Structure formats: C-alpha cells, structure tokens
Write the structure tokens for this entry.
Amino acid sequence: MHGPDEKLTRLEALAQEAADAVTPGVQVAEGVERADVDAVNRREERSLYKKRARIHPKRAYGTFRQLKWLIMAVTLGIYYVTPWLRWDRGAGPDQAVLLDLPHRKFYFFFVEIWPQEIYLLTGVLIISALALFLFTSLFGRVWCGYSCPQTVWTDLFIAVERFIEGDRNARIRLDKMPWNASKLSKKVTKHLIWLVIAVLTGGAWVFYFRDAPTLLGELVTLQAPMAAVAFIGIFTFTTYSLGGLMREQVCIYMCPWPRIQGAMFDEDSLLVTYRERRGEPRAAHKKGESWENRGDCIRCRQCVAVCPMGIDIRDGPQLECIHCALCIDACNEVMAKIGRPPNLIGYETFRNLEAANSGRYAPVRFFRPRVIVYSVLIAALALLMVYALFTRDTLSLSILRDRNPLYVTLSDGSVRNGYTLKIINRKHEPRFFRIDASGMAGSKLVVMGLREPEIDVSADDIRSVKVFISGPSPAGGKQALTIAVTDTQDGRTASEATTFRGPE
Ligand code: SF4
Ligand code: SF4
C-alpha cells in the first residue's frame, strides 16, 4: 500500500503527463484527474471494496465507431422488429418467432419445435457457444465489444446521455457543478428517456411469448395478463439499471466471460493492442519538433478519454478491456493530426508483438488447430441439426402403462392392462389413426369411449387416449408387446414397446 503523499505525487505526475501533451490540434482529455484517481486506485489499492469511479466516455470518430453504430442499429432493429413479423403456417399462430409456453412450442419461421425436440435448441446453444469460442480465438472479445446486449444497450444509453448533457468535458463539468434548474432538467430528461428505452426493451421481450398485436391491444386497454406486466417491469428495471446505471461494472464484476475468455486466446489471436515498441518512449510533442529517439505516443490520453471501461490500453492487456476498438479510432485521429502513421493502437497478435522486437513481421495465421477444431465442430453440428430437422417424423407416440392397478383379472380369467397413449400430430392438418397391439397372441385392444380403435388428432396437436388391452394371463407374469398408431391415409406408423403384466 502507498501512503497518501505518495499517491498524491503519482496523481500529480499523471496530471503533468496530460498537461505535457500540448501538440496543437490535439486536445488533452479534460477530467484527467478522474481517470487518474481510477488508475491509481486500480493499480495500487487492493481493498476488498472499491468505490466506483464514474466514467465519462468521449465520443469517438472512425471506422470502428461507425461499425459499432451499424451493429447497434442492426441488433436493436432485429430485437424490436422480430415479434411483429408474421408467418403463414396454415394452422397455429402466425407469429414468425414465438415461444408459446402454454402449448410448450417454439416457432421460428418455418421451424416448429416441440418439447420432445428440445435437443434442437440445445444444439443451437452449443453451436452459439462454439461460435463464440471461434470468434474469440480469432479476434478477441468481439462479442463483448460489438454485439453483447450489455454493450449495445450501454452504448445506446451513453449516446442518449451525450445527446442531453454533451460530450465528455461537458458531462464532467455538469457532474461537478452544484444543482440548479438547468442541471436538474438535463438529468431528469436523460433518466426519462432511459426509462422509455427500458420500458420498450421490456415490452419487446414479452412480445416474443404471446401474439404481439393481441398483447399490445391488451396492454393498451389494461387487460394484459399480470405475468406480462410483471415481466415488463422486471426487464425495464434490469435494462435501466444494467445499461444506464451500472454500465461497465456489469462487465467487470458480474459477467464471468472476461475471466474465461483468456483461455481462448493464443499467440495468433488478433487483439486490440498498444504497439509499445512504436509508441515508447512516450512524450509530449510540439509542432516542428523532431521525432528522433522517441515514440509516437504524445501522451494526449485520447485513447483513455473514449474508453467506455475507463482504462488505459497502454498499460497492456487488461481484464476490463472489452476490445471495442474505440481507442484505435481515437488514436488514429490523433496520429492523422500530428502526421504520424495510423494504428499505434490496432489489432495485433502476440506473435507479431514478439517478432517486432527483432524487426520481423509474419502474416496472421487464421488457419490454426483450435480454429479448425471449432470450425469443424460447428459445421458437423449444424449439418447434424439440419438433417435432424428435415428428417424428423410428423408423428410421435409415447406410452405410459398404468401402475395402479398393475392389472385387473376379468371374470373369464383373462387379464386386462391399462395404457395412456400420447399421439403427436406435427402436420398442419387433422389426421386419423388406427391403434393396434402386436406381439401377444390373443390380445384385444379397446380405446376407452370408442367402438373402433380409431381416433382423430387435430392439426399441430397432441391427443391423449386411454387404451385397454386384455388377453390370457402371461407366463411368468410378464409379456412384451408393441402398440402402434398408423395414419389411415398415408400409412405412416409410430410404435413403442411396452409390457403386459399379470399374476406371477
Ligand atoms: S496511444 Fe495515442 S491516443 Fe493514447 S495517449 Fe498515446 S497518442 Fe494519445
Ligand atoms: S482499452 Fe480500447 S478496446 Fe479496450 S475497452 Fe477501452 S477503448 Fe475499448
């Protein structure tokens, strides 16, 4: 631990570092004292609980910022618009993407997944996880930096904050100034807009679970189910608090991914990196001064000012870094102004950082064992799932044999067992089925309430029927038999083996 005097000296040194960067056209990041306190705390204090240092990310301009705007627009667009897409299935709901919990079905455009096919969703989750591993090993935390919902919504909330309160310097000034009418109105406006976004986010989520136009009508007329209202409330709260208030703390303290994603990196992973060999020794630079015997970093701290995590990329790889690449944009802007080559901060591999010491550079190796293994696994699983999806049967049968009583002895000495059949018709049209038992001589099958063992099942539906099979008492008290249902029109059959029990 360092004493207060020593910490003050370091703060002064950091403030001096910022003040030194006086290259014309490059603005020193105001509010550097805030980042300094954060940096000193992070590096030097090891207390169990740390007070949060508020971060005021500056607006970045450049390729990666544009890319992030584009990804934000696409992902938010998909999220908000998807529940309103319609899909004509003939029978059943016409919502393209719907998680129909009461009927235990998931609709995704032309795909309809029943509870018995949950393995298809499991497959999608496994493929998503493998894809995350693949992209992390190739490009670092691209998921975190560009498309994680936490990143996207935080970025949106910061954009609103910037729109209302101004860019970094204005926001720092606003936070420091005493409360007055102007400050109050800006803060209230910002939080109200955040709340509207949060309500829309929570509202969009529940539309995935119920027909969206119907639910919207119910919400407007205050007739929506309590569960929908409760979930809108929960998601409004989580969106507002995680995206607006907690922001980077979610990534640093709540998310487990930063702690495990390091295992996916290798020496060929492209990571956002400060090219220390080129940047050091860093020093302030005045127009017209020589660039001999010094690095390209002019200590302007623009890379720190734009960082949504409040870190300094020049300190090396850090758990907090989400690889959003905004520091690349900020530094490239500086390099353009001072006439130095771009990409002092850029996507770089550990291998090339090492090689740079000996002046050698190698092309990035994209095809390497772990990338190939992840790719092969993703392709194999995807093929398997497509095969399973397109070859799955439109008819399923499950049988539950009565256990109480196990059997009934009839007056003529024969024995009767009871079974409950669940017949699933996955076709979008009603079907008729004949029910048969086989494998046991002298057996007789009766469907409860019907004269003939034939039943109809509605389109996209499950029907349960009670069936009784009677026959001679089996030797040894047990006899194997098979029950089958056959479509009377197309002849498709589903069967399941079961047992016929009697006295031992
Ligand atoms: S790395 Fe670039 S943006 Fe960061 S302080 Fe150095 S010159 Fe400025
Ligand atoms: S250091 Fe750079 S890449 Fe990492 S979070 Fe900050 S701005 Fe993004």
